[in-house]
């Protein structure tokens, strides 16, 4: 288990042992904190044949009983997982799950269903799950995970015991990244909104180098206006690139306001931020406001489709006028 989840795991395992865990648990928290892994571990505890042994000295999951071995092999008949890999979770998948849960447990030790990224359920799928959440058959336990619990129907949330997984402390994550053979980087962690797993994948893919290159180009636009087209295409590569730019401007505004450099999000780009801070708070605030509006406009489902290149081009043209 990830080090930042060990305490959560122990608390939830204790609830299972005392039979105080609800029949439906919603694990919520930002993406990349390990909700899926924690749900899988709880499923092991719930199905382990030693969980209900009278002596609490016996650890669970033990890793040795028949149930634990079946889970390890990936073919436990009483563990059912609905993955969130697809774009949405449809009603057929949920109906199939509820049908399976209504049947008797094959090993006589209860049934567990894990629904990953439960907020991807369609409204019909969520409604199909309601009855099972209200009256689960036998000893069935449902474990739902979500990085966007606000997207779940209120009727789903109200029927679940909700458990928030907070964003881990940065020093814990940085040590863990170092143990993974990666260069600890607080700026990279901030870019990924504190997500340990997201930061791991980001660093392993070498994406942080691209961030530094692109922001360097942007900061030097006043001296190198010929790179404007390159900057525009770079910012359009991925939606997160506009977040990089937003964080840069926010840090620059913080310095322009005369505030301490403590708390800068892009701690490795302080020199760029100081260069941009010379534009003054009024210009930076104006640019930042426009950028935030642009990012909002480009969000999926924000309204009718817009030409991202055209919108960003207009913002960059305004920026070039601003820095002259």
TrEMBL record:
It catalyses: DNA(n) + a 2'-deoxyribonucleoside 5'-triphosphate = DNA(n+1) + diphosphate. Its EC number is 2.7.7.7. One of its GO terms (biological process) is DNA-templated DNA replication. Keywords: DNA replication, DNA-directed DNA polymerase, Nucleotidyltransferase, Transferase. It comes from Oceanisphaera arctica. InterPro entries: DNA_pol_HolB, DNA_pol_III_delta_C, DNA_Rep/Repair_Clamp_Loader, P-loop_NTPase. Residues 208-319 form the DNA polymerase III delta subunit C-terminal domain. This is DNA polymerase III subunit delta'. It comes from the Bacteria.
């Amino acid at each position: 288990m990830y080090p930042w989840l060990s305490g959560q795991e122990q608390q939830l395992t204790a609830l299972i042992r005392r039979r105080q865990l609800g029949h439906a648990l919603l694990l919520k928290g930002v993406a990349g904190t390990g909700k899926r892994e924690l749900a899988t571990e709880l499923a092991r505890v719930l199905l382990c044949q030693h969980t209900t042994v009278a002596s609490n000295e016996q650890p669970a999951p033990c890793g040795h009983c028949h149930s634990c071995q079946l889970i390890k092999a990936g073919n436990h008949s009483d563990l059912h997982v609905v993955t969130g890999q697809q774009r949405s979770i449809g009603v057929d998948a949920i109906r199939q799950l509820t049908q399976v849960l209504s049947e008797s447990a094959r090993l006589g030790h209860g049934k567990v269903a894990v629904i990953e990224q439960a907020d991807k359920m369609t409204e019909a799928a969520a409604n199909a799950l309601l009855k099972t959440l209200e009256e689960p058959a036998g000893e069935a336990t449902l474990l739902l995970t979500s990085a966007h619990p606000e997207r779940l129907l209120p009727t789903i949330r109200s029927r679940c015991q909700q458990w928030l997984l907070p964003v881990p402390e940065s020093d814990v994550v940085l040590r863990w990244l170092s143990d993974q053979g990666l260069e600890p980087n607080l700026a990279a962690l901030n870019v990924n909104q504190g997500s340990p797993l997201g930061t791991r994948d980001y660093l392993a893919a070498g994406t942080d180098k691209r961030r530094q290159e692109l922001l360097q180009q942007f900061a030097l636009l006043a001296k190198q206006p010929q790179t404007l087209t390159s900057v525009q295409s770079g910012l359009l590569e991925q939606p997160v690139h506009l977040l990089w730019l937003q964080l840069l401007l926010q840090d620059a505004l913080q310095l322009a306001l005369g505030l301490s450099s403590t708390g800068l999000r892009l701690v490795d780009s302080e020199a760029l931020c100081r260069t941009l801070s010379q534009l003054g708070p009024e210009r930076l605030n104006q640019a930042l406001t426009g950028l935030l509006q642009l990012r909002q406009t480009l969000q999926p489902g924000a309204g009718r489709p817009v030409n991202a290149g055209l919108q960003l081009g207009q913002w960059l043209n305004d920026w070039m006028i601003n820095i002259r």
